[in-house]
Amino acid sequence: MDMADIARRELGALHETVNGFGDSEWTTPTALRGWTVEQLVRHVAEVATRQGEAYHRANIEVSEKPSDAPVAVPTERLAAALAIASSFLADAVQGVDRTGDPSVPMPFAVVPASTADFLLLFEYGFHRFDLEHALEGSAHLSPDVVDTITALLGLSLPAIADPNARPPCAHITIEPDNWPATCLSWQKGVWRTTDQPGTDTWTVRGSAEAIVRFAFGRPTPDGELTVDSGEMATAFKTIFPGP
Question: Among 194, 210, 204, which residue's Cα sits nearest to residue 173?
């Protein structure tokens, strides 16, 4: 499966779960910024609508980014709104010819289609996890979501770094099990990927899923992560605030 296929599968699984809701699930708290399940699902419906419009615009060669698309329906109609948004996005994604990696005017920036596809995988891979974790008390990211995000840590972490946060160390080494290490170095005010770790390096080790969940602010599985102690351990999410 390519990244867009994985993203559609994850969004479809999320919608299938929501479609089976009664009245009690909507007020369940999640691990995200104090959001309830209803707020999470409403967010997903909104971003799916905007992203669907972005891919539609790419298909008709319009470069202007889509505006906000608030989903203001009452709670009892939210599952239906998500179904419409999911279908719109799936059709729009499939309609884009990937030849030459055309531009997609995503809500925050115009990016190549390959980058947009990764962002969809990231968004819905994590939010499918977020919903399951809220409802069941535990969850796992899908293996192909973990593999894709792990392979691109060297690009995604510098991209989400706070330009105004000054780190307590100049080098970070991320060592997922059975994956090459990702080495980051603070150079001239920005984080850059390097080939070799520095001599004074803060290190995080563990399973690929544990590292991905830690790096992007999700609860980590017990016993699968080793994080060097010290100031950087608590500063990591200030420096890389992410989604």
Answer: 204
**Cα-flanking dihedrals φ and ψ of residue 191, to 5°?**
-85, 130
Q: What is the pLDDT of residues 45-75, one digit of tens each?
A: 999 999 999 999 999 999 999 988 889 999 9
Q: Per residue in 83-141, pLDDT tens? A: 999 999 999 999 999 999 999 999 989 999 999 999 999 999 999 999 999 999 999 99
197, pLDDT greater than 70? no
Sort residue 61 into left (φ over 0), alpha (ψ -120 to 50) or beta: left
Q: Dig out the tokens for 210 from the structure.
A: 């544990």
Which domains, and CATH codes, for the chain? 3-139 (1.20.120.450), 155-239 (3.30.1050.10)
What pTM, to 2 d.p., does this model score?
A: 0.93
Structure-block tokens of residue 27: 């007020």
Long-range contacts formed by 63-71: CB under 8 A, 24+ apart? 63/103, 63/105, 63/110, 64/105, 65/105, 65/106, 65/107, 65/108, 65/109, 65/110, 66/105, 66/107, 70/46, 71/42, 71/45, 71/46
d(CA 152, CA 181): 11
- Asked if 21 and 79 count as a contact pair (C-beta separation under 8 A), the reply is yes
3-class secondary-structure state, position 11:
helix
